[in-house]
Design brief:
Chain A: Its main location: cytoplasm. The structure holds 2 protein chains of 2 kinds. Chain A is α+β, with helices and mostly antiparallel strands. Helices cover about 25% and strands about 35% of the residues of chain A. Chain A is elongated. By secondary structure, chain B is mainly alpha-helical. Among the domains of chain B are: about 35 residues, no CATH class; about 90 residues, Orthogonal Bundle (Cyclin A, domain 1), CATH 1.10.472.10; about 150 residues, no CATH class. The chains are: A alpha+beta, B mainly alpha. Chains A and B meet through helix 2 and helix 3 of A and helix 8, helix 22 and helix 23 of B.
């Protein structure tokens, strides 16, 4: 196995978080009463609404800010967000779907080899931080991409970044370093 | 030349000339420089800083650290407290900050101090300590080297009552410190070579290794002693993961023992293998190579076995289109790997969580309908209706709530 030869790695996107604004005040009590699949958290001042297709959970605040989590792609996140906005429109609110933005993407990738974490940390300071007493994985931050990778000794890598492209670039960047510290 | 003085009717206090004025400009000219504008406050330390420095010094005394460590920790504390990230936090976090500074100093000087020890001294929650530690690293840009397991073994064993002369310990259980430290270091090295140390808390591994080493030095009187009793005799806390680490170490040792011809006859189990730990550690490099193999090597082995088992089949004839010989044999290898795990056959040296996975690995691919969703696709009304309650349902709910 050579670090330069083409390796097909499956990057599985497990979660996409997006936000949007409705540009109007939302009556949470009305949403809780007239919406289905809704949980009203009065103490915190928000409503949780779950959609079946796509499988996402939306957190709705009375200010009109909505956060959607659980999508497995950026397109799915946008579709889910729009569907939610339409539901709120149907409930009688003057919703305008604006300021949509994907804020976080979480993906998982499995390397075909195990990784020696102490060796990897030593050769990748200061980007890599490994505290076995706190967490079993090495935390590697790529500032340019604003991405964080958690590298486990089994070869599994969890990547979080602002979008899918950043996540893919992060995996590409980390591969030669983990390959050098493979078992 | 008499001056007009003002006298308080209640206490008889005489107001000096010029202290009461009628205009702001008079105030400005006559008043003294306020304390906050003077350099006096800057030179003086705030109470918070003084308390923090005292805490750092006390911590260094309790841990019996050299004076250099104390100076470094105090300088880190001073620098950190000036930053808004630490100045404007709760008192609880400020108390932890002192502990973090001591911890970082010890790690930088390769002094084996664990987070668990510092947290127990400060009566702090480890999650909070971890947060403050990571912020300190980030804000001050400190480089914290890894904890050296060898140094931790020496320090941890140094606190064992079993190894202290004059301690009230039964004769069969007392042990020489040098011998125990040497053997424990070997067991810990074996653990780190077999993926038992990576990603795990260090103290339970050291405790389990020390117990195993102690038992193996004089097996006759000690095999009946449990890990819990050993920790009580040693005067240390028993960390819960130590049982699991001990079990994993014994499994590795049993595998290694199966490769030694004169031990195979004995049919060793988890108790009896302890008697032979010395021999196994002596030949550990060779035994590990024999007992375990690289993942690629096992696939080659499987290939050879498959080839030997069915020489007449011929790989070319039974291959489905587009699949190579190696892939097919790898698949067969994977399916038979599980069956052969229980036997004495060589298995790959993997982290324990891979050999005994607790949960199924994520292999579900997204369904065709889900993947076809586009962000700007039109949404029909009927799709939205399912997320809204009907009028009857709303009425019923309101009645229920009213009731």
């Amino acid at each position: 196995m050579d670090a330069d030869s083409d390796v097909a790695l499956d990057i599985l996107i497990t979660n996409v978080v997006c936000v949007f604004r409705t540009r109007c005040h939302l009556n949470l009590r009305k949403i809780a009463l007239e919406g289905a699949n809704v949980i009203y958290k009065r103490d915190v001042g928000k409503v949780l609404m779950k959609l079946r297709k796509p499988r996402i959970t939306a957190t709705i605040w009375s200010s009109g800010k909505v956060i959607c989590t659980g999508a497995t792609s950026e397109e799915e996140a946008k579709f889910g967000a729009r569907r939610l906005a339409r539901s709120l429109q149907k409930l009688g609110f003057q919703v305008i779907f604006t300021d949509f933005k994907v804020v976080n993407v979480l993906a998982v990738c499995n390397m075909p080899f195990e990784i020696r974490l102490p060796e990897f940390t030593k050769s990748n300071r200061p980007h890599a931080s490994y505290e076995p007493e706190l967490h079993p994985a090495v935390c590697y931050r790529i500032k340019t991409l604003r991405a964080t990778l958690q590298i486990f000794s089994t070869g599994s890598i969890t990547v979080t970044g602002p979008n899918v492209k950043a996540v893919a670039s992060a995996v590409e960047q980390i591969y030669p370093f983990v390959f050098a510290s493979r078992k | 030349y008499a001056q007009q003085q003002l006298v308080c009717e209640a206490c008889g206090c005489v107001l000096a000339e010029g202290l009461l004025t009628t205009t702001y400009t008079d105030e400005g000219q006559l008043r003294e420089v306020s304390y906050s504008q003077s350099t006096g406050q800057r030179e003086q330390q705030s109470r918070c800083l003084q308390r923090g420095i005292r805490r750092v010094q006390d911590l260094c005394k309790v841990l019996q650290l050299p004076a250099v460590f104390e100076e470094t920790a105090v300088s880190y504390f001073r620098r950190a407290l000036q930053l808004p990230a630490f100045h404007l936090v709760s008192l609880e976090k400020k108390e932890l900050l002192g502990g973090c500074c001591v911890f970082v100093t010890c790690r930088q000087h390769n002094w084996p101090l664990t987070m668990g020890t510092v947290c127990s001294l400060l009566y702090a929650k480890q999650e909070l300590f971890a947060g403050v530690f990571q912020s300190l690293q980030q804000e001050l840009g400190l480089s914290v080297p890894a904890l050296s397991l060898a140094d931790l073994v020496k320090t941890h064993l140094g606190s064992f009552r079993l190894l202290q002369r004059g301690a009230d310990v039964p004769a069969p259980f007392a042990e020489d410190k040098e011998k125990l430290v040497a053997r424990t270091l070997q067991v810990v090295e074996l653990a780190s070579e077999t993926w038992l140390v990576t990603g795990r808390h260090p103290v339970p591994i050291v405790t389990a290794a020390a117990f195993l080493a102690w038992q193996s030095l004089q097996p006759p009187g000690r095999l009946s002693c449990t890990l819990g009793r050993f920790c009580k005799l040693a005067g240390v806390d028993l960390p819960p993961p130590a049982y699991l680490r001990l079990k994993e170490l014994l499994e590795i040792l049993l595998r290694m023992a199966s490769q030694l011809a004169w031990l195979r006859v004995f049919r060793l189990d988890k108790k009896t293998v302890v008697k032979h730990v010395g021999e196994l550690l002596q030949h550990r490099v060779f035994l590990l190579k024999k007992a375990f193999c690289e993942q690629g090597e096992e696939e080659e082995e499987e290939e050879k076995e498959q080839g030997a088992a069915a020489p007449g089949e011929g790989s070319a004839g039974c291959l489905p289109a587009g699949q190579t010989e190696q892939e097919q044999e790898q698949e067969q290898g994977c399916s038979s790997r599980g069956k052969r795990r229980g036997e004495a056959a060589r298995r790959p040296l993997l982290p324990p969580c891979l050999t005994k996975p607790r949960k199924r690995l994520r292999t579900a691919a997204p369904s065709a309908s889900d993947s076809a969703l586009g962000g700007d696709d039109p949404i029909s009304d009927s799709e939205i209706e399912q997320y809204l309650r009907g009028a009857e349902e709303i009425r019923a709910l309101q009645q229920l709530k009213a009731w």
